[in-house]
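Hi there,

I know you've been waiting on this one. I reran it after we fixed the sequence typo, so this is the corrected version. Both the input and the resulting structure follow.
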Amino acid sequence: MGRIEKTAFLSYRRTNAPWALAIFQDLTHHGYDVFFDFNGIPTGDFKEIIVENIRERAHFLLLLTPSALERCGEPGDLFRREIETALGVKRNIVPLMLEGFSFDTKTIASQLTGELSVLRNYNALNVSVEFFPEAMERLRTRYLNVALEAVLHPATSTAVRIAKEEQAAAAAAPAVTKQELTAQEWFERGVNATGPDEKLRCYGEAICLNPNDFAAFNNRGTVRNAIGDQEGAIQDYDAAIGLKPDYSAAFNNRGVARRSQGDLKGAIRDFDDAIRLKPDYAEAYYNRGHARRNQGDLEGARKDFDDAIRLRPDFAFAFNHRGILRYDEGDPEGARKDYNDAIRLKSDYANAYYNRGNLCRDEGDLDSALKDYNEIIRLKPDYADAYYNRALVWQEKNNPTAAIADLQKYLDLGGGERDGDTEEVEEMIDDLQKL
């Protein structure tokens, strides 16, 4: 015979902390024993603390916003591991759908892979700012008022102690306001927005409502960096780091912005800090490898790309850039292998086809080079340099008509990397027309 339990584990992304705290405060007010990772449990303590507390509690509350599942494809993602643990021990899983989350959204559906694919089959509860008290009452009276059939497992003394410490810290936090939750809504709208102007507006609204929203500053900085406003981006990353000094993503992103400005020393310092805070941060190793290569530190760059790939074996961009480095070092076979792996992992990766095509052309394998350039142009018809390099192949294969057509297309697209070399290309066309 099943039994009613008033114990729950709260699983959430740190960016959704106000929602998590509000739910924690409501449930504890009504007598529930809730595990809430308020301060942040170190990754190394996952098995002893997180797993033990999931196994000890009857209900598993899963906070889902449009951005929550984004990193679930990364190896070792703690959010995914929490979900998989709850599935494995058959807890009463209740997905709480916030900020317009829907399992039918294309991007979200693509993230529900492996064991996570079953989540759409669970009875989910919609939660909104406007009807938050009503949603919490429904959660308590319907979703949690069910008999548990699975066996609960007593946690270790360490897991119990840390759970109590986290609960005490969360209980001491001020009550979450409607304004904070509304800021969360604006943040998620920014995540879902398609254009940079709308993203900037939404993140700006979130920051106005909650000036302590470090994630909104970080995301707005990323949008600003993407549109070429590196100064504005760095200001936002500074604010995010000021609010959360252990925010590894903000250090990494500020490093990317500084690298774009040509401040390689500053960028490397930021990547160093990101890695110090998160030693398994594959993207930070990858970005530091870029900066080191730009500095001329090929050995350091090679080590960083190696580490990025070790941490993320499916990191197509790292394979591609390690291939570039290997080619520069005089290792064409190693470069070819890396380009092949990059394309295997990401079949629409135009830059990897481009680099492999260039390698084949340099080695005199014109047919393979032509095949790669054709694929680039199929994937990305506005890839100007692919037309230029394919024209060189046509020229070597004694097909001046095809070479002229590609050179003209290259000029029509603005000249690619050789912008300003219009006169030289026009002379090439003239010479080919005389053949």
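Quick highlight: The mean pLDDT is 91.

Best,
R. S.
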